[in-house]
């Protein structure tokens, strides 16, 4: 459900972009994201931290985009957000009792401490990679291409990553089961 909510502003942004231009789409996005954040809060009494951080970045970089009439500020938003999330995941290896990925998926998977650290680092790599790809597209392709990449390209990268992560998790858990069975025998 959260993934769907996360993509509503992107879809609204793209529709607004194709109706008028990047500046109109930026203004619409700046209005949509806080509204969705308020609706989430009203319904759940919880704030999704990543969505809240994304909203703050949109408001700051969107304001710069409109003020300076330069879309590059907005183009940096996905990169900054992904890199900050990557740093948080990386920092969780030293802060707290478990890596963030273990806190997120600990009930769904059983892994050893080194495997959780590895999976957490895989996520760090993914966030850094997506940030790099976003800024590469922003500087090397047209504005319209970047807008489409923002929805379809990033979604595609995320889906491929989830598949790869699922395969890795399956393999890691299978290896643990084999080790446990060999130890018991």
From TrEMBL:
Record-stated family: Belongs to the YciB family.
Residues spanning the membrane: 22-43, 50-68, 80-97, 118-139, 151-169
Primary localization class, coarse: membrane
Keywords: Cell inner membrane, Cell membrane, Membrane, Transmembrane, Transmembrane helix
Pfam family, one: IspA
Lipid bilayer topology: Multi-pass membrane protein
The protein, known as: Inner membrane-spanning protein YciB
Taxonomic lineage of the native organism: Bacteria, Pseudomonadati, Pseudomonadota, Gammaproteobacteria, Woeseiales
Entry-linked InterPro entries: YciB
Functional description taken from the UniProt entry: Plays a role in cell envelope biogenesis, maintenance of cell envelope integrity and membrane homeostasis.
Source taxon at top rank: Bacteria
Organism: Woeseia oceani
Gene Ontology, cellular component aspect: plasma membrane
Record's subcellular location: Cell inner membrane
Segment forming the signal sequence: none
Keyword Cell inner membrane carried by entry: yes
């Amino acid at each position: 459900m959260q993934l769907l909510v996360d993509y509503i502003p992107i879809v609204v942004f793209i529709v607004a972009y194709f109706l008028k231009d990047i500046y109109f789409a930026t203004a619409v996005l700046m209005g949509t994201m806080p509204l969705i954040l308020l609706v989430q809060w009203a319904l759940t009494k919880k704030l999704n931290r990543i969505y809240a951080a994304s909203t703050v970045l949109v408001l700051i970089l969107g304001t710069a985009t409109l003020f300076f009439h330069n879309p590059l500020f907005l183009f940096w938003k996905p990169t900054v957000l992904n890199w900050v999330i990557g740093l948080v995941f990386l920092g969780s290896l030293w802060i707290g009792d478990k890596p963030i990925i273990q806190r997120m998926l600990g009930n769904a998977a059983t892994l050893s401490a080194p495997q959780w650290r590895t999976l957490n680092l895989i996520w760090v790599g993914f966030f850094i990679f997506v940030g790099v790809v976003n800024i590469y597209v922003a500087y090397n392709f047209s504005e319209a291409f970047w807008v489409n990449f923002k929805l379809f390209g990033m979604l595609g990268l995320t889906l491929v990553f989830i598949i790869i992560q699922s395969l890795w998790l399956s393999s890691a858990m299978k290896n643990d089961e084999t080790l446990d069975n060999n130890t018991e025998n």
